[in-house]
Amino acid sequence: MNKMTPFQTGSLLSRPANTEEKQFYEERELPLSILDDYKSAASETEYEISANTRRAYTSSFSLFSNYCSEHRLNTLPADPRTVISFIGYQKELIQSRSGAQLSRQTLTSRLAAIRYFHIQAGYHSPTEHPLVIRVMRGLSRNKQRTVSDYDQQPIMYDELEMLLNVIELQPHAITRARDKAIIQLGFQGGFRRSELADIRVNHLSFLRDKLKVRLPYSKSNQQGQREWKNLPQSEPFAAFDAVKHWLTVSKIQDGHLFRSLTRDGRQVRDYSVATQGIESKKRNSGFLRGDDIYQMIRKYCTKAGLSHEFYGAHSLRSGCVTQLHENDKDHLYIMARTGHTDPRSLKHYLKPKD
């Protein structure tokens, strides 16, 4: 072995020893010759969870950290009683917009953030303490709390037509082409907004009677398995012609499908995507993100007279599920369209027939 300056195995991850975990064999010291290999592999943890999940966890954990700081409690690691007290504080919060308390789903996401940061730091998560589990189980059965059960309403054929009519009023042809393609593709494919933003030109296949869209990754496909959406051209408001028209007008031949436009709305912005290293993300520009698509749909909903309180980007996915159900498609057909792997998940998106 090359006896160069050694480095300690724990120095890169900075994880304290946890006596409750299984003990693994460790070299007394590792040679500097493998440092670059170790760093290369360790950098992959950046992609362990999605960027959206990471932002949500960071936001939730900051709330917990502030609570601990206010009451002079330890944050990391935290006492399970501290977590229970935080739950008590959070569950009593009244939302100014809805006048309701935080839902159990929101509180669960707060606990998920606490668990994530404890595990990352090498500590046993206090959220797994029996008392914490009992508290959350009780919350799920408590019918006395006034919580917001708001859920985005589905955009179906009638609402979709209203949105397209509003888009038609846009003064520039390139804006009309792009936004129609986004709305129609999002609706017919039941895409999440992040999935729409990630579609690239080489993911599209225009076949004789359908548009085929490949999804390298999705929320239910984190491992990069093969996943396709087959979108028939025969369906009302099919995305086939709208997407093809957008590609023709924009003259986009590769890269991200949906691009940013200049402030005057007359042309596509310069496009740049760096491919090397995590820091390269800061140099990516010229294409729409999921939040951009969300804000765009909110804008058109408001102009069409659909309150953005009840309609949003998720309404396209919910509308896809509900409309296919109205069209008498079975659950397996709908799941193949949306990418769901569990029929029970459709209940969240499916709105009952009148």
From TrEMBL:
Q: Gene3D superfamilies attached here?
A: 1.10.150.130, Intergrase catalytic core (1.10.443.10)
Q: Where is the composition biased (Polar residues)?
A: 1-12
Q: Where is this region: Disordered?
A: 1-21
Entry's Gene Ontology BP terms: DNA integration; DNA recombination
Keywords of the record: DNA integration, DNA recombination, DNA-binding
- One matching Pfam family, short form? Phage_int_SAM_1
* Highest taxon above the source species: Bacteria
Residues covered by the Core-binding (CB) domain = 25-122
The molecule here is called Integrase family protein
**Biological source species:** Shewanella woodyi (strain ATCC 51908 / MS32)
